[in-house]
Specification:
The chain is α/β, with parallel strands linked by helices. α3 packs parallel to α6, α7 crosses α14 and α11 packs across α12. The two termini are 18 Å apart.
Length: 411
């Protein structure tokens, strides 16, 4: 198999609209959860949200480009622009068809969908905007990125709910490792902080009812009561090791394993015993050729919902055995809430930064550990230590599980 490395990263998140700002806020323990402003917080069980702040699409695209994109696609293009520039990769007639883009989303153009349904109801069936079917599909983030950079290889989207971003990276990794692509922009994007999304999750009682932003997202805490909805994008530039070395590119990490499974159990609830998610981790480790003892850190899916956190604890135990009790685990959703289809790719970026700097981000707000969540969840304060391998876990409604194995790059 061809070895696959990371040569660029880009992020648009509730704690920073670029990689540097996001990581600085993680290192200084600053979360991005606030009172919601994109909906009326008084209307819902949940008043908190982790919104992207101060995003200016004009910084990376002209008004005509921005107008044809839903917000989720704008986030994706901005994150891809940062990752592509960071990589220093250049598209030409010889490599264009060997360079792809796989960017997923749980919902696609949800904002444009809601806006146009309201417009149709208020003004009639022939008054939706002409760009309706250009802005709403899940594939349009990938399509706009491909057009922006002239990427003529595989261009597609993975839509597997909250595992979309992680699955996209995993599928891009597989295509490069099998020689189908030389390089690929991969990740996820989401922008669903609107009334239809809030109302749906509110009646499910899946979101936190806390009014204190410091207590709203608290994975693995016994008082946790739901996730905090969020938005943004995380994009990686993946490339074959041979290609990266041939052009003298800086390498930030290596993707060495990928595992995917399905619970086949329930539309929202995970398997309580965690075996399906645990098997995804086992597959990633097996592909990477490592034992459980070699895992230095796990970035958990860790949504702060009662069912997810306890089942993921069981999944980690199933995957790692006794090594689970000595492996640091944390959930950075305590920083930026649940970014849905962008969660897994953004958390993969966190893992890469953690490996590079030898720093494990903490699980913020973890004041009262749940006895059923009895692993080392790195509460409140980060931890500096040498790291070699990290697992990044993602799980989505419908039972989708994905795990990425990422290795520190030491040349």
């Amino acid at each position: 198999m061809v070895r696959v490395v990371v040569t660029g990263m880009g992020a648009v998140t509730p704690i920073g609209n670029n990689l540097a700002d996001m990581w600085k806020n993680i290192r200084t323990y600053r979360h991005g959860i606030r009172l919601a402003t994109k909906v009326n917080p008084d209307d819902y069980r949940t008043s908190m949200a982790a919104e992207v702040k101060g995003f200016d699409p004009g910084a990376v695209m002209d008004k005509r480009e921005a107008k044809r994109m839903d917000l989720y696609a704008q986030y994706a293009v901005a994150a891809a622009d940062e990752a592509f520039k960071m990589s220093g990769f250049e598209i030409n007639s010889e490599n264009a068809f060997d360079t792809g883009v796989i960017v997923g989303s749980g919902s696609g153009g949800y904002t444009a969908m809601e806006d146009n349904v309201r417009r149709m109801q208020e003004r009639g069936p022939n008054k939706v905007e002409p760009l309706f079917h250009i802005k709403t599909p899940v594939n349009m983030a990938a399509a706009n990125i491909a057009m922006r950079f002239g990427l003529k290889g595989d261009s597609m989207s993975v839509s597997s709910a909250c595992a979309s971003g992680s699955h996209s990276i995993g599928e891009a990794f597989m295509k490069i490792s099998q020689g189908q692509l030389t390089a690929c922009l991969a990740g996820g994007a989401e922008a669903t902080l609107n009334d239809s999304s809030f109302s749906g999750f509110s009646v499910l009682k899946a979101m936190s009812a806390q009014s204190d932003p410091g207590k709203a997202s608290r994975p693995f805490d016994r008082e946790r009561d739901g996730f905090v909805p969020a938005e943004g994008a995380g994009i990686l530039m993946l490339e074959s090791l041979e290609s990266a070395q041939a052009r003298g590119a800086e390498i930030y990490a290596e993707i060495t394993g990928y595992g995917a499974t399905t619970d086949a159990h329930h539309v929202t609830a995970p398997l309580p015993d965690g075996r399906a998610a645990g098997t995804a981790m086992k597959k990633a480790m097996r592909m990477g050729g490592i034992t459980a003892e070699a895992v230095s850190y796990i970035n958990a899916h860790g949504t702060s919902t009662p069912a997810n956190d306890s089942s993921e604890t069981e999944a980690i135990k199933y995957a790692l055995g006794e090594a689970a009790y000595s492996t640091p685990v944390s959930s950075t959703k305590s920083y930026f809430g649940h970014m849905f289809g962008a969660a897994g790719s953004t958390e993969a970026i966190v893992c890469i930064q953690a490996l590079r700097e030898g720093f494990i981000p903490p699980t913020l707000n973890l004041q009262n550990p749940d006895p059923e969540c009895d692993l080392d969840y790195v509460p409140l304060t980060g931890r500096g230590q040498p790291l070699e391998y990290a697992l990044s876990n993602s799980m989505g409604f419908g039972g989708h599980n994905s795990s990425l194995l990422i290795k520190w790059w030491n040349g």
